[in-house]
TrEMBL record:
It comes from the Eukaryota. This is Uncharacterized protein. SUPFAM superfamilies: Metallo-dependent hydrolases. CDD domains: TatD_DNAse. GO terms for molecular function: 3'-5'-DNA exonuclease activity; metal ion binding. Belongs to the metallo-dependent hydrolases superfamily. TatD-type hydrolase family. One of its GO terms (cellular component) is cytosol. InterPro entries: DNase_TatD-rel_CS, Metal_Hydrolase, TatD-like, TatD-type_Hydrolase. It comes from Arabidopsis lyrata subsp. lyrata (Lyre-leaved rock-cress).
């Protein structure tokens, strides 16, 4: 893995901002996520819509690209529409484990799969769809979808990855054994992926890292406790991506990782909204910088720009394996558009081999 020397502020690809745009983890009421960025909290209007302000703050903080993740067929359509509004926005196509009932609720699971496949192809042609997902297993919320349905349609979505040759944006919650078993059966059917928002044990971490195509995604929820930090420390920086999962999963003052945070923004309560300040208690993409600071600080990595560079390029390129006669390149989200300096470094490495 070549890395790019950074000049000035660190540079990021935020691996998911779907919740800013309605599109992720609160399965029963996803509109509440979007509502926060329309100024709505529990049905009460507290401030003006501020998605544009939130995005501008992200770009100013060094976020370079954002992947809007889809959690259902309809949300994947919305994700693509949103991604087309800005050259720095990209998206995924897939069905979250807690939404997998939708395959059978349509009455024709194969037709539903084909609709996902068609949408993925359309988005790829537009240069916007960069992964299949969010898909996986979530055994913490079986009230939304039972185990057998989750497993069936998690495995089905490897067909999408195989057909499109896209990497996977993955979700694993309290389901490591079944998750790894399904990945093992399908490990030759996808070119790479990230298990995002990782909060598992050291054993879970090591199981995932045993798949050489797998990255682990870290956010504030990955950095809550001393045990979380120790587990995170055991993730090689070359196998890590960082994210926010906003508007949730921020790094709170009670979290073990807070002592490594250096970057702060002014914040005010939602009732006293000021567009120059963050909303207190609402996570934002700009705060991905804090995740970087905790990762670098707890790992004892002094050159934060170098850490940022490595994490950034992890999101572009999975790995580069060299042999005497051939180069095998395994790719993640933006293989077609690495920075020119990184390409030069890779070219130089190839020539020396």
């Amino acid at each position: 893995m070549a890395s790019l020397k950074m000049i000035g502020k660190p540079k990021f690809i935020l691996c998911n901002l779907s919740d800013v745009f309605l599109l992720m983890l609160v399965e029963a009421f996803p509109q509440t996520l979007y509502g926060m960025f329309k100024g709505l909290y529990h049905g009460k209007k507290c401030h003006v819509p501020d998605i544009a302000t939130v995005l501008n703050r992200a770009w100013s903080a060094g976020v370079d690209r954002i992947i809007v993740t889809g959690g259902s067929l309809e949300e994947s359509r919305e994700a693509l529409a949103i991604a087309e509004t800005d050259g720095r926005l990209f998206c995924t196509v897939g069905v979250h484990p807690t939404r997998c009932n939708e395959f059978e609720e349509t009455g024709d699971p194969e037709k539903h799969y084909q609709a996902l496949f068609s949408l993925a192809k359309e988005g790829m042609q537009k240069g916007k769809v960069v992964a299949i997902g969010e898909c996986g297993l979530d055994y913490d919320r079986l009230q939304f979808c039972p185990v057998d349905i989750q497993k069936k349609y998690f495995e089905k979505q490897f067909e999408l990855a195989y057909a499109t040759k896209l990497p996977m944006f993955l979700h694993m919650r309290a389901a490591a054994e079944d998750f790894c078993e399904i990945v093992e059966r399908n490990k030759n059917r996808f070119p790479g992926g990230v298990a995002h928002s990782f909060t598992g044990s050291a054993l879970d971490r090591d199981k995932l890292l045993s798949f050489d195509k797998m990255y682990l995604g870290v956010n504030g929820c990955s950095l809550k406790t001393a045990e979380n930090l120790d587990v995170m420390k055991g993730i090689p920086i070359e196998r890590m991506m960082i994210e926010t999962d906003s508007p949730y999963c921020d790094i709170k003052n009670t979290h073990a990782g807070i002592k490594f945070v250096k970057s702060t923004w002014p914040s005010k309560k939602k009732e006293k909204y000021d567009q120059e300040s963050l909303v207190k208690g609402r996570n934002e993409p700009c705060l991905v910088r804090q995740v970087l600071e905790v990762v670098a600080g707890y790992k004892g990595l002094g050159d934060i720009n170098q850490v940022s560079s490595t994490l950034y390029h992890n999101t572009c390129r999975h790995s580069q394996k060299m042999t005497f006669k051939e180069e095998i390149q395994e790719l993640v989200f933006f293989p077609q558009d690495l920075d020119s300096a990184a390409d030069a470094l890779l070219s130089g490495h190839h020539e020396t081999d």
